[in-house]
Amino acid sequence: MAHPKYEEVAKILKERLSALRERDGDLRYKAQGALAKRQDEDQEFFSEDEIERFRRRFLERYGGMSLEEAFEGASIERGHGLLTITHCEKFALQHPDKESASERLQKALWLVHRIRDARASELKAKGFQNIPDLLRHASYGEDAKQVISMIAQGRTTSLYEQICARGGRAHLLSLALAPFFCPNDVAFLDIEAMGLFGGSLVMVVGLGMQQEGGFYITQLVANTPDAEEAVITKTCHFLERCEVLVTFNGRAFDLPFIAQRAAFYGVSLRERFLHFDILHISRRIFKGTARSCKLQDLAREVLNDVRDLDLPGALVPRFYQEYMENPQTKSALLVAVLQHNKDDVLQMAKLYNKLVIMACEQK
Amino acid sequence: MNVENAIRLITTAPWYRGQITFQYVEEASEPKLLPLPDVIDPAVAKWLLTQNISQLYEHQVLCFNLASEGKDTILCTPTASGKTLAFLLPILQALAKDEDACALLLYPLKALTNDQLEILKQAEMQSGLFLSPAVYDGDTPQTKRPKIRQFSRIVLSNPYEIHEILPYHQMWRRFFQNLKFIVIDEAHKYTGVFGSHVAQVIRRLLRVVKHYGADPTFILASASIGNPEEHAFRLTSRKCVVVKGDSARKPKRCIVFMDASKPEYGSPFVQAANLIRTMVSGGLKTLCFTRSRKAAEFIASLLEKEPLIAPYRAGYMPEERRAIEKGFKEGKLLGVVATSALELGIDIGDLDIVVLTGYPGSVSTFWQQIGRAGRKGDSCLGIFMASETIVDQYVLRHPERVLKKEYEVATISLDNPHIVAGHMLCSASELPLSPDAEHEEIALELERKGLLRRSSKGFIYAAITRPHALVKLDAISQKTVVLVDEATNKTLETMDFSRALREAHPGAVYLHQAETYVCQTLDLQGLIAILRRQDVDYYTQSLTQKDISVKDARRLGSNGYVTSYSSQIVVTTRVIGYLCKRYDRLIGRNDLDLPPLTLETKGLFMEFDIPNDYKHLGGLHAIEHTLVALAPLLISCDPSDLAGFSTIQSPYSGLPAIFIYDGQDGGIGLSDELASILQHALSTCLEHLSTCPCKHGCPACCLSPQCGNDNQPMDKGLAMSILRQILESGPIG
């Protein structure tokens, strides 16, 4: 068959896709299976005017700047459509010492099989202040022994399962496991995806990790769709090396998305690491007090850390798309996206710091 | 059941006036039975024992052997010949021998999946095997899905769901890695544009399954069609062995042709009702198929005083349908008046009589419906009642047309770029795509438009809108209206938008389970119609006006006699009012103000340089029908994928014209393809009409069972002479 026919078909498909996108609204897609972001962010709706205002502010702030200028001090590598930007942040990830963490864990009587909060209070009143005390208890001695050995041997995976099983997935105490690791073993992950459906491209991956010399945030950026493969491959390699992973809503969003894209490209993804999704932990702790559980709102209220001009997460796909269609004139939008992603990773790390301290506080 | 006695019941009935015109007897034949294969696993044997099955039909053994050897198979069988067992047996055997093995069963209708699930759950219990069978479709709640993906070894689903879940294949990897069988039931249903879409979905599924290292065996089950091997290949891309399922016991079947067209004996509905009443009062279990939902309801309403008779159609809520099926099976109901919804394999027990009111449109379907009678091998009776329509009368006078069993062919197109391109986008979002040589060109065009990009592993989907939302497997509209009983707030039915305008407009008399309701309001925004239960002695018939307008017409060519054009066609259908009728007498007419339904599509039209004399319309009409009827041969689509319109005053330039357009919104390239072979198509029409032995037109040439005008006016002779004139006037452009 002749080309003009295929051209017509391709044109029709493209028009219908645009029409679908406009009709449904860019980003307010219905949840597609397991890849829906369940944050408030998703329910945000911006009018065209508001979007234009954002656009203008970013163009004003970052217009005409090169990436080197916008991100002073960052090291930038370019190659085959893949951009790698490494920032070094003035921030130190700190863990309380392992002893106080162990002590804190031992105070949680409810970790022992068959002991719930009510029973724990009873036992405390009777003089059993911590789990080692329970060793001399007729009924709970054996089970207490199990938990103590887990703590003594630093079996973090078993402890994590125990905490989740008995206290729920989002229990703050799980962060008391952090001090069993060196801060340099903790990785922070935040991704920016172009949509919510099971074929959406992941264009930006932000990875934070502490090393000798500081807290580094590496951003892997796909300048063109075909560079996504490299972004995913490098992300999976990175995750191979980490012992502890921290995300904000990563259980429902970031990780399944990476897994989806890794499966798409046939890249293997390590799935066994300790994963702290601090959205859920934060929600449990701050639900009554904080106005919203969005990362930047929590950072502002709990840490007093305010972002300057920030791009709302819901607008990321749109602005990234605009940048890709016009990389020369719209590079300011790329900067906006990258700044947003970097702020996400950094504030996540700061929030984590605070939560770990709270988790280890002796009551 | 004694056939002679049953016929005597008819001929001695008070309403009988000699309507029987012809009788034909198919003698019984003994089943070809074989012992159970030795290799059957003990668990499977246990299940068979509990079902009292100690022997198999020859076709079941054949199917078992082929499937177990990994040979793709298509089983062509009339209804009720043990096809479920035919494909379950090799599957259970494989799952018994390999504790990780899995099977996927695909059905075109949800109602069928629910029935099959029951059978599988029983099989699990009776065999002791761990199967965890589950239905996974649009109705499966989110909370149940992860467990099914993780544990189920037999999953029942449909092509629509597979289309949606393929991007999430890595959540299915355990299942796909271990997939040993894919069953496609009612495979003859996948024809035309719908079938072409499903064929692409199957190919995408195979690509994903192959990615996980599996190589499943196909087992297709189909009603009798003219081209099983070809159809199976087009649907699945595999060469399948054809197994004819005719070794089941065939009952002695008498086919009776009756003429119900004489108005002095009552309308055809009244005559059908009389027939059913007579059979049921003789204790004979009777199933009557009608051509439309309204007919089913109407006939049932004539029989409302009979507690043993009920209507049945797909629009009823599932619980209602289950109740009727169960009642019928258990003998609590002796008569059911149904639409084609009951033609597929839902279990309704043994039937003595099947009545067909009106020709169902194809020889294949005729035998599928008749074939419902005589399940357990007893003699049975099939009755064809012809109404006054031209098609019915033709079949009545030429019974050999159906008795010769020349089944229609199923057509699937594999190279319609409209279909293929959409699925390529979906494919590329599931796994990087390396298209075959024949599709390389399409991929390059999609790349030029920025929808695909090249990566090191192949083409990837690069746009940000979900391509699966773009590809609709069938043309069924998404909007459905819920019909609610005003008094009880109960949902009576859900029907699609366009039907609701015709049958649930304010003032419409609506029949449900033989009770009449009058529609009070139709809320088109909220998609709800409120109906009030009311005893009325009239019925309503909506009046629709169809208008065609032409946009962006492009002249393709002319030879002086006829000029052909391709254009955008806008078909506006408006329900303008309705008639109130008591029996056949008009007692009133009301106007309605409802929004029009517009179909914007692509089409082709031919204008003729002949006087716009009404007498020419018969010829044009015949040509229009013949072109559409020949579509499967000319452009590999179903006649129902196209629509036609003939007029002596074209909306374009006022000349007599024939329009042929794609039935799907937006067009799908069919009329374009027809336009590109127009000369050939018209000469094929002439050849077909000339060689058809009928005198004035028949269902095999220019009579269409779908004609909204009852095939009037129709002039085969004039059509042939117009066609000759066209061909003699030289090439058209």
SSE topology:
The complex is a heterodimer of chains A (363) and B (733).
Chain A (H helix, E strand, L loop, with lengths): L2 H22 L23 H15 L4 H4 L4 E5 L2 E8 L8 H10 L9 H9 L5 H4 L6 H12 L3 H12 L18 E8 L8 E10 L2 E9 L5 H14 L2 E4 L6 H12 L8 E4 H9 L8 H9 L12 H10 L5 H30 L3
Parallel strand pairs in A: 3-6, 6-7
Antiparallel strand pairs in A: 1-2, 2-5, 3-4, 4-5
Chain B lengths: L2 H9 L8 E7 L6 E3 L6 H9 L4 E3 H11 L4 E4 L6 H15 L4 E5 L3 H18 L6 E2 L9 H7 L2 E4 L1 H7 L7 H5 L1 E6 L7 H20 L5 E6 L5 H9 L4 E4 L8 E7 L8 H14 L4 E4 L3 H10 L6 E4 L5 H13 L4 E4 L14 E5 L5 H8 L9 E7 L3 H8 L2 H4 L13 H14 L6 H12 L3 E4 L2 E4 L18 E6 L5 E6 H7 L5 E4 L2 E9 L4 E6 L5 E20 L3 E21 L2 E7 L5 E12 L8 H13 L1 H5 L6 E6 L9 E6 L7 H7 L1 H14 L24 H13 L5
Parallel strand pairs in B: 4-9, 4-10, 5-7, 5-8, 6-7, 8-9, 11-16, 12-14, 12-15, 13-14, 15-16, 19-23
Antiparallel strand pairs in B: 1-11, 2-3, 17-18, 19-20, 21-22, 22-23, 24-25, 25-26, 25-27, 27-29, 28-29
Helix pairs in contact in B: 2-5, 3-4, 7-9, 9-17, 11-12, 17-18, 20-24, 23-24
